[in-house]
């Protein structure tokens, strides 16, 4: 199996899910591959020792496949104004997490059938609530796999913007790794004036992330309590820093 085969599989599954659930994902998805031997994994481990190195999760891992499911334009636009997250954004957050959990397991199963050790990692909710430390970072994996660069909102800016959800598959299949972007995608990080994501945060969490991350957590949990019965599942989301900003749906100019 080649990278393109995996991408076709994932996009076909997203298309079917989109049709069944009435979600207009901005296909195609974005997919990248990182080598398990990339030195950046050790750099991440040294900076964030609680994040697993791929080889801690799968001893014989060769490749890390990371993909981004781009949320619909309708969800992004509906969430671009107001303080509270829009119901459409919350619904897509909930549904897309379920979709990604399915996609990573299906992809891993197919790779195992072909003789390669493989595991799929959950889309979210694999973290310690008190210290907000997760055992895996899809965002850092996406960066190493060449999907994009980090913005000042700590999100990964991909070719489909930041309004995406990420999934990861680890496999012993050796695939060609993708190159990383040579420039910063974030307007502020490349010396321009923006900071729209900072200004849009309902709880000013991005002013100082060391303390702001707990404000963000509390806000997301408040939203979940407020909307879970309406949405029909876990919706601890907000997305204001991902909606109505220059990097929402593309690499900003």
Provide a descriptive summary of the structure in words.
It is a single chain. This protein is of the alpha+beta class and 253 residues long. It is built from eight helices and eight strands, in the order H-E-H-H-E-H-H-E-E-E-H-E-E-E-H-H. It has a four-stranded antiparallel sheet with strand order 1-2-8-3, sandwiched between helices. The chain starts with a helix and ends in a 22-residue tail after the last helix.
Summarize the SSE layout with pairings:
Layout (H helix, E strand, L loop, with lengths): L2 H19 L8 E6 L4 H8 L6 H4 L5 E8 L2 H6 L8 H27 L4 E4 L5 E2 L4 E2 L3 H7 L3 E3 L5 E3 L5 E8 L24 H5 L8 H23 L22
Antiparallel strand pairs: 1-2, 2-8, 3-8, 4-5, 6-7
Helix pairs in contact: 1-5
Taken in chain order, the helices and strands follow as HEHHEHHEEEHEEEHH
Total beta strand runs: 8
Helix tally? 8
User: Main β-sheet: number of strands, strand sense, barrel status?
Assistant: 4 strands, antiparallel
């Amino acid at each position: 199996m080649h990278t393109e085969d995996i991408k076709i599989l994932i996009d076909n599954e997203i298309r079917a899910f989109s049709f069944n659930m009435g979600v207009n994902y901005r296909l195609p998805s974005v997919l990248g591959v990182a080598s398990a031997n990339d030195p950046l994994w050790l750099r991440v481990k040294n900076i964030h020792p609680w994040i697993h190195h791929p080889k801690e999760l799968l001893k014989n891992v060769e490749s890390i496949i990371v993909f981004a499911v781009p949320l619909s334009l309708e969800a992004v636009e509906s969430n671009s104004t107001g303080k509270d997250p829009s119901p459409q954004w919350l619904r897509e957050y909930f549904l897309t997490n379920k979709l990604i959990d399915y996609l990573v397991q299906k992809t891993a199963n197919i790779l195992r059938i072909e003789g390669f050790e493989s595991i799929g990692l959950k889309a979210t909710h694999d973290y310690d609530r008190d210290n907000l430390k997760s055992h895996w970072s899809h965002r850092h994996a996406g960066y190493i796999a060449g999907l994009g660069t980090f913005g000042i909102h700590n999100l990964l800016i991909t070719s489909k913007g930041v309004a995406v959800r990420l999934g990861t598959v680890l496999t012993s299949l050796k695939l060609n790794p993708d190159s990383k972007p040579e420039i910063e995608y974030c307007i502020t990080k490349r010396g321009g004036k923006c900071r729209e994501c900072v200004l849009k945060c309902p709880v000013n969490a991005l002013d100082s992330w060391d303390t702001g991350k707990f404000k963000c957590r509390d806000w997301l949990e408040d939203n979940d309590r407020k909307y879970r019965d309406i949405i029909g599942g876990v919706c601890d989301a907000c997305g204001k820093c991902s909606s109505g900003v220059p990097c929402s749906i593309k690499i900003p100019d």
